[in-house]
Protein backbone atom coordinates (compact mmCIF):
# COMPACT_ATOMS: atom_id res chain seq x y z
CA UNK A 1 0.00 0.00 0.00
CA UNK A 2 1.45 3.41 -0.86
CA UNK A 3 2.21 5.94 1.82
CA UNK A 4 -1.11 7.72 1.92
CA UNK A 5 -0.73 9.91 4.95
CA UNK A 6 1.43 12.99 4.99
CA UNK A 7 3.16 12.33 8.29
CA UNK A 8 5.87 9.92 7.25
CA UNK A 9 8.80 12.21 6.80
CA UNK A 10 8.15 15.20 9.02
CA UNK A 11 6.99 12.96 11.87
CA UNK A 12 8.98 13.05 15.09
CA UNK A 13 9.44 10.26 17.58
CA UNK A 14 7.75 10.87 20.91
CA UNK A 15 8.89 7.68 22.66
CA UNK A 16 9.98 4.13 21.99
CA UNK A 17 7.26 1.61 22.83
CA UNK A 18 9.04 -1.64 22.17
CA UNK A 19 11.95 -3.06 20.23
CA UNK A 20 12.62 -6.66 19.35
CA UNK A 21 14.06 -8.71 16.52
CA UNK A 22 11.02 -7.97 14.36
CA UNK A 23 11.31 -4.23 14.44
CA UNK A 24 11.17 -1.15 16.53
CA UNK A 25 7.85 0.27 17.62
CA UNK A 26 7.63 3.95 18.45
CA UNK A 27 4.98 6.48 19.31
CA UNK A 28 5.23 9.27 16.74
CA UNK A 29 3.80 12.72 16.28
CA UNK A 30 2.92 13.79 12.77
CA UNK A 31 3.26 17.29 11.39
CA UNK A 32 -0.45 17.85 12.04
CA UNK A 33 0.05 16.98 15.72
CA UNK A 34 -1.74 13.63 15.72
CA UNK A 35 -0.05 10.70 17.35
CA UNK A 36 0.44 7.38 15.64
CA UNK A 37 2.40 4.16 16.17
CA UNK A 38 5.15 3.17 13.76
CA UNK A 39 6.75 -0.25 13.31
CA UNK A 40 10.07 0.32 11.57
CA UNK A 41 11.72 -2.67 9.95
CA UNK A 42 14.96 -0.88 9.13
CA UNK A 43 16.42 -1.91 12.48
CA UNK A 44 15.77 -5.60 11.85
CA UNK A 45 18.87 -7.80 11.34
CA UNK A 46 19.21 -8.89 7.74
CA UNK A 47 18.51 -12.57 8.38
CA UNK A 48 15.15 -11.72 9.96
CA UNK A 49 14.01 -9.15 7.40
CA UNK A 50 11.89 -11.59 5.44
CA UNK A 51 9.84 -12.97 8.37
CA UNK A 52 9.57 -9.44 9.83
CA UNK A 53 8.29 -8.10 6.50
CA UNK A 54 5.88 -11.00 6.18
CA UNK A 55 4.47 -10.36 9.68
CA UNK A 56 4.16 -6.61 9.07
CA UNK A 57 2.40 -7.22 5.76
CA UNK A 58 0.04 -9.62 7.51
CA UNK A 59 -0.70 -6.90 10.07
CA UNK A 60 -1.33 -4.33 7.31
CA UNK A 61 -3.75 -6.69 5.57
CA UNK A 62 -5.48 -7.57 8.82
CA UNK A 63 -5.91 -3.90 9.68
CA UNK A 64 -7.25 -3.19 6.21
CA UNK A 65 -9.92 -5.83 6.78
CA UNK A 66 -11.18 -3.99 9.88
CA UNK A 67 -10.76 -0.45 8.56
CA UNK A 68 -13.34 1.91 10.00
CA UNK A 69 -14.04 -0.25 13.02
CA UNK A 70 -13.89 1.35 16.40
CA UNK A 71 -11.33 0.29 19.03
CA UNK A 72 -8.84 -1.26 16.66
CA UNK A 73 -5.93 0.72 15.16
CA UNK A 74 -6.54 2.28 11.76
CA UNK A 75 -3.99 1.48 9.09
CA UNK A 76 -2.33 4.74 8.05
CA UNK A 77 0.48 3.55 5.82
CA UNK A 78 2.52 0.52 4.85
CA UNK A 79 5.37 0.90 2.38
CA UNK A 80 7.17 -2.38 2.95
CA UNK A 81 9.48 -0.90 5.59
CA UNK A 82 7.32 1.17 7.87
CA UNK A 83 3.89 0.35 9.15
CA UNK A 84 1.93 3.26 10.62
CA UNK A 85 -1.29 2.80 12.58
CA UNK A 86 -3.39 5.14 14.66
CA UNK A 87 -2.62 5.47 18.35
CA UNK A 88 -5.19 4.61 21.00
CA UNK A 89 -4.44 6.14 24.40
CA UNK A 90 -4.70 3.64 27.22
CA UNK A 91 -2.76 0.88 28.94
CA UNK A 92 -2.25 -2.82 28.38
CA UNK A 93 -4.58 -5.15 30.25
CA UNK A 94 -1.81 -6.30 32.59
CA UNK A 95 -0.96 -2.68 33.45
CA UNK A 96 -4.53 -1.68 34.22
CA UNK A 97 -6.36 -4.93 34.94
CA UNK A 98 -10.15 -4.78 34.47
CA UNK A 99 -10.87 -6.38 37.87
CA UNK A 100 -14.57 -7.09 38.23
CA UNK A 101 -15.32 -4.98 35.16
CA UNK A 102 -18.12 -6.91 33.52
CA UNK A 103 -18.80 -4.09 31.06
CA UNK A 104 -15.23 -4.30 29.79
CA UNK A 105 -15.62 -8.00 29.03
CA UNK A 106 -19.04 -7.55 27.46
CA UNK A 107 -17.65 -4.91 25.14
CA UNK A 108 -14.54 -6.99 24.46
CA UNK A 109 -16.73 -9.83 23.32
CA UNK A 110 -18.67 -7.53 21.02
CA UNK A 111 -15.45 -6.12 19.62
CA UNK A 112 -14.18 -9.61 18.93
CA UNK A 113 -17.44 -10.55 17.22
CA UNK A 114 -16.99 -7.48 15.01
CA UNK A 115 -13.58 -8.74 13.88
CA UNK A 116 -14.91 -12.20 13.22
CA UNK A 117 -17.90 -10.89 11.27
CA UNK A 118 -15.49 -9.07 8.98
CA UNK A 119 -13.69 -12.35 8.34
CA UNK A 120 -10.69 -11.76 10.57
CA UNK A 121 -9.35 -13.99 13.32
CA UNK A 122 -6.70 -12.38 15.53
CA UNK A 123 -4.80 -15.45 16.83
CA UNK A 124 -2.71 -13.68 19.46
CA UNK A 125 -5.18 -12.72 22.15
CA UNK A 126 -3.77 -14.91 24.92
CA UNK A 127 -1.30 -12.07 25.47
CA UNK A 128 -2.63 -9.41 27.79
CA UNK A 129 -0.33 -6.94 26.01
CA UNK A 130 -2.54 -7.16 22.93
CA UNK A 131 -5.65 -6.05 24.85
CA UNK A 132 -5.79 -2.40 25.84
CA UNK A 133 -7.88 -0.71 28.46
CA UNK A 134 -8.48 2.69 26.91
CA UNK A 135 -8.53 5.86 28.98
CA UNK A 136 -12.33 5.74 29.14
CA UNK A 137 -12.27 2.06 30.16
CA UNK A 138 -13.25 0.58 26.79
CA UNK A 139 -11.39 -2.43 25.44
CA UNK A 140 -9.26 -2.21 22.31
CA UNK A 141 -7.34 -4.86 20.37
CA UNK A 142 -3.91 -4.31 18.84
CA UNK A 143 -1.14 -6.33 17.15
CA UNK A 144 -2.55 -8.03 14.06
CA UNK A 145 0.67 -9.73 12.98
CA UNK A 146 -0.78 -13.22 13.24
CA UNK A 147 -4.27 -12.38 12.02
CA UNK A 148 -5.89 -14.61 9.41
CA UNK A 149 -8.57 -13.62 6.91
CA UNK A 150 -11.20 -15.91 5.53
CA UNK A 151 -14.90 -16.48 5.06
CA UNK A 152 -16.52 -15.90 8.45
CA UNK A 153 -18.64 -19.02 8.14
CA UNK A 154 -15.95 -21.40 6.98
CA UNK A 155 -15.07 -24.22 9.40
CA UNK A 156 -11.51 -22.99 9.71
CA UNK A 157 -12.51 -19.41 10.56
CA UNK A 158 -15.12 -20.61 13.01
CA UNK A 159 -12.49 -22.69 14.75
CA UNK A 160 -10.06 -19.75 14.94
CA UNK A 161 -12.86 -17.47 16.15
CA UNK A 162 -13.64 -19.91 18.94
CA UNK A 163 -9.96 -19.95 19.94
CA UNK A 164 -9.95 -16.13 20.05
CA UNK A 165 -13.04 -16.24 22.24
CA UNK A 166 -11.47 -18.84 24.53
CA UNK A 167 -8.49 -16.54 25.04
CA UNK A 168 -10.77 -13.65 25.94
CA UNK A 169 -12.68 -15.86 28.36
CA UNK A 170 -9.44 -16.86 30.06
CA UNK A 171 -8.85 -13.20 30.82
CA UNK A 172 -12.42 -12.91 32.04
CA UNK A 173 -11.84 -15.95 34.28
CA UNK A 174 -8.76 -14.20 35.65
CA UNK A 175 -10.37 -10.82 36.38
CA UNK A 176 -14.10 -11.42 36.50
CA UNK A 177 -14.49 -15.06 37.42
CA UNK A 178 -17.84 -14.80 39.19
CA UNK A 179 -19.43 -13.38 36.04
CA UNK A 180 -18.60 -16.34 33.76
CA UNK A 181 -21.84 -17.76 32.36
CA UNK A 182 -22.44 -21.53 32.12
CA UNK A 183 -22.01 -21.30 28.33
CA UNK A 184 -18.69 -19.49 28.74
CA UNK A 185 -17.51 -22.10 31.22
CA UNK A 186 -18.31 -24.76 28.65
CA UNK A 187 -16.37 -22.91 25.94
CA UNK A 188 -13.40 -22.75 28.31
CA UNK A 189 -13.55 -26.47 28.97
CA UNK A 190 -13.95 -27.57 25.38
CA UNK A 191 -10.53 -27.76 23.79
CA UNK A 192 -9.99 -28.10 20.05
CA UNK A 193 -7.63 -30.32 18.08
CA UNK A 194 -5.90 -27.12 16.98
CA UNK A 195 -5.02 -26.22 20.55
CA UNK A 196 -3.81 -29.76 21.30
CA UNK A 197 -1.64 -29.72 18.19
CA UNK A 198 -0.21 -26.33 19.18
CA UNK A 199 0.69 -27.52 22.68
CA UNK A 200 2.30 -30.69 21.36
CA UNK A 201 4.25 -29.27 18.43
CA UNK A 202 4.00 -25.53 17.80
CA UNK A 203 4.55 -24.27 21.31
CA UNK A 204 7.81 -26.14 22.06
CA UNK A 205 9.24 -24.90 18.74
CA UNK A 206 7.99 -21.35 19.43
CA UNK A 207 9.68 -21.47 22.87
CA UNK A 208 13.03 -22.54 21.45
CA UNK A 209 12.88 -19.85 18.75
CA UNK A 210 11.75 -17.00 21.01
CA UNK A 211 13.83 -17.84 24.10
CA UNK A 212 17.03 -19.35 22.74
CA UNK A 213 17.36 -17.79 19.30
CA UNK A 214 15.64 -14.42 19.61
CA UNK A 215 16.24 -14.15 23.40
CA UNK A 216 12.83 -12.70 24.13
CA UNK A 217 11.78 -12.51 27.75
CA UNK A 218 10.03 -15.62 29.05
CA UNK A 219 6.97 -13.74 30.04
CA UNK A 220 6.69 -11.25 27.18
CA UNK A 221 3.35 -9.57 27.30
CA UNK A 222 1.69 -12.23 29.40
CA UNK A 223 1.28 -10.09 32.45
CA UNK A 224 2.65 -10.75 35.91
CA UNK A 225 4.10 -14.16 36.59
CA UNK A 226 1.94 -16.28 38.90
N1 LIG B 1 -2.35 1.51 18.16
C1 LIG B 1 -1.78 1.50 19.35
N2 LIG B 1 -2.24 2.29 20.33
C2 LIG B 1 -1.63 2.30 21.53
N3 LIG B 1 -0.56 1.57 21.86
C3 LIG B 1 -0.05 0.75 20.95
C4 LIG B 1 -0.63 0.68 19.63
N4 LIG B 1 0.09 -0.19 18.91
C5 LIG B 1 1.06 -0.64 19.73
N5 LIG B 1 1.00 -0.09 20.94
C6 LIG B 1 1.92 -0.33 22.08
O1 LIG B 1 3.13 -0.85 21.56
C7 LIG B 1 3.36 -2.18 22.02
C8 LIG B 1 3.89 -3.05 20.89
O2 LIG B 1 2.99 -3.05 19.80
P1 LIG B 1 2.52 -4.39 19.08
O3 LIG B 1 1.81 -4.01 17.84
O4 LIG B 1 1.79 -5.27 20.03
O5 LIG B 1 3.91 -5.05 18.72
P2 LIG B 1 4.44 -6.53 18.87
O6 LIG B 1 3.89 -7.24 17.72
O7 LIG B 1 5.92 -6.41 18.78
O8 LIG B 1 3.97 -7.06 20.18
C9 LIG B 1 2.02 -2.64 22.55
O9 LIG B 1 2.13 -3.61 23.58
C10 LIG B 1 1.39 -1.35 23.05
O10 LIG B 1 1.86 -1.04 24.33
MG1 LIG C 1 2.05 -7.26 20.93
Automatic annotation (TrEMBL):
One of its GO terms (molecular function) is protein serine/threonine kinase activity. Keywords: Kinase, Serine/threonine-protein kinase, Transferase. NCBIfam families: PRK12274.1. This is Serine/threonine protein kinase.
Amino acid sequence: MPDTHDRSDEAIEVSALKADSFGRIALMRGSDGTRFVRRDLRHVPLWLRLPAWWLARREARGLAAVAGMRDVPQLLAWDGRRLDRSYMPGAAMYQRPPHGDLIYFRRARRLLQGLHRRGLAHNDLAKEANWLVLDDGRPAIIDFQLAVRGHPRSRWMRLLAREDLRHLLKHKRMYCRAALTPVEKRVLKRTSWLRDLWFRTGKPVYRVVTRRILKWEDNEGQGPKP
